[in-house]
Amino acid sequence: MATEEELSSIIGRLSLREGEATRHSTSSLTATRIDPFLTIIGKLHCPRVVTHDSIATHCRNIWSLRRGFAVRPVGENLVHFKFNDRIDRARVMQGEPWLLGRKYPLVLQPSYDLSADFDLCPWWIHLYNCSLDLMNEEFARFAGNLIGEFVEVFTDANRNCIGRFLRIKFKISLKKPLMRVLQFEHEGRDLNFPLQYERLAEWCYHCGIISHVESGCPTKPPSVGNSSKSPEYGPWLRAKGYWNPFVSKRPANVLDPFFVPDDSDEEVAPWSERQFH
Ligand SMILES: [Zn+2]
Question: How many Å lie between the centroid of ligand 1 and the Cα of residue 74?
Answer without folding.
Answer: 28
